[in-house]
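Reading group handout, session on sequence-to-structure problems. Before we discuss, look at one worked example. The prompt was deliberately terse, the way you'd type it at a terminal:

> structure GGDEF domain-containing protein

The input record follows.
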Amino acid sequence: MTQDNKLENLRNDKERFVAFSFAAADLLIELDNNGVVVFASGAAKGLTGVDMANLKGMPFVDVVAKQDKSVFTHILETMKVGDRITPVVARMANTKVSVTVGACKLPRNHEHIFLALTVSAMAAARPSSEHRDSETGLLDRTDFLKLADSQMATAAEAGQKTELTLLQLNGLSDLQERLGEDGVGNFLDQIGVILRRYSLGGDSAGRLDGDKYGVVHSASIDGKDFEEKISELSKEVDPKGNFSIQSSTVDLLKGTLSANNATQALMYVINRFVDSDTEEFNIKSLAEGMDNRLEKTMNRMLALKSVFQNYKFKLVYQPIVTIEDKELHHYEVLSRFKDGESPYEPVVFAEETGIIQDLDLGVAKKVKDKLLEIQKRGDILPKLAINVSGNSLDSDIFIESLVTLFRDNDEIRESIGLEITETSQIKDLERADKVIGSLRSTGMEISLDDMGSGSASFQYIRSLTVDYIKIDGSYIKEVLTSKRDAAILKALSRLCQELSIGTIAEMVETKDQLHVLNVLGVKYGQGWYFGKPQPDIETRRKPRGITQNLKRKGFATTWT
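And the output record:
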């Protein structure tokens, strides 16, 4: 082969290499031994905000957003000749665009590092803002679970096998005593870099609790590697310490885990792991029984979803009355499952696993059927309040399904109220207020449940435009003996009067409580004093003529 032919073949090979790279990437970058850009080709300006000419000569980490700099510094410093990293998601500092970055360090190229930057589904899954742990730079538990959900779904669609490793770090408090606040802070920062470096997409790692961490990663990475790397780090900073690590890894696509709602089952188990301080649910037991726990959780979720979707539950109705005259105002609709079984535990399980929407929609459907039955026999429709979890309120699909369910019958829709429970599950109050406004515009009235039970209660009153609030029963229990609780109730009642919000007191059980609530200005009451939840509702015949004529002319009935 002549020299010219060899050169031609080399040119062809180079062109093929560039073509293959561009087929999979939007921007190609070559870095020298110091991490400085020596070559770039592609959408430099669009992705990094820096044009091609100015990009050359810049350290690559300078175009990366602050929260990702440490991860890429670690990658560039630790890559060896022949290494190829799994794609890592990074946000660009100037444009805020998230891209997937692949990297390799080829032999016989002056040990330069080659990067391929791509806007992909994995990059798009990353939220525009994250809540991070200040010590490690890792995502907090909530955002880790959300991002892990998105990353796992993306990986599954691409056929990429993923695993989850949970780690428990033992001895952090002792380490802090020996290293001091600054020393342990630096140690935790380095742990965060290590876990992110090997996580799926470079950010699927989170600090779940003070000493508990989670990492979603490719199956090609051994979860035990995390133990070894962190152990090596701890020995460097504290050679004589008793710091130790335990870990548990589970295959995220194993068996039933590939079915619908598998992620919710996994997150439920993670939350139990984080919240439990008992020996029965420590990292060791988790490692030994992770698959079994997931299997049980998944099976229970599927069983409960079947109960919800096939309406295999009963409804009961508890009266809510006007305190001043003891006249019935409306009923709260409550769910009941097996005879004698408390509904609390299955409802909490449904909320924590994300299947509460199925129950909320199932209750709404049964309530509509009940009102249709009353409507057909010509009786006055009672006003019914159904519970809707904050989790459900956050779902566009749920809201659309709920509105569609009641769209075809104005009279029934105007007899429906929504009582929002688990308000702590509402992540975006501005969006929630818009949703509540759209529901109220249809004739539905909205209540907030358990007001006063959480530190953010007044924030909800400030942010959400509602018709009623339900005062947590703990205040009602103590209203006769606690001046502080009585003062809080009085202030809350006055505030709500000024905002034209009705107040409903829960757990009213005695005549004395009723008297004090009336003096304090609370308008409505609910509790055993007025009646326990009952299996049916007594209704009265609808007067002929005037009501129907008013409805035909477009007059709307209200709850007030």
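Points for discussion. First: The longest helix spans residues 283-309. Second: The first strand starts at residue 27 and ends at 31.
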